[in-house]
Amino acid sequence: MSQEHSVRDLLRELFPETHRELFGPDSNDAPPTLGLYPVADGRLALIHGDQLAEFTPLDPKGKNALHCDLCHYTRSRSEAALYRVMVATRRSRYVTLCTATEACQGRAGRQGLETLANRIFPLELPYTE
Ligand SMILES: [Zn+2]
């Protein structure tokens, strides 16, 4: 399917290491169409269909517990982080997520990921075309 190919190509272009990790050198597994994937420097890539957004971790201010926007658990400072997502050229959104994203996505399930993706997408950035 062409949509799956475009995700693959986008990933390979933006995050070559993640692409290798997800698909392997000759993996026959179906490419992901929805999910969060750790990429370089503590960032996360959110993929939904042929759309991709990059989450950049920020240093959280204060000492309050964090509330994960994906699995909705309350997390300590060491278990979650605040991420910035550029949703348009001059606009960003802030999302709190568990740093252990695999377990977090397991708790949230596909429904939770869909909800998160619907908050982020569509982006209005030129590079997401
Ligand atoms: Zn979480």
From TrEMBL:
This is Elongation factor G-binding protein C-terminal treble-clef zinc-finger domain-containing protein. It comes from Deinococcus arenicola.
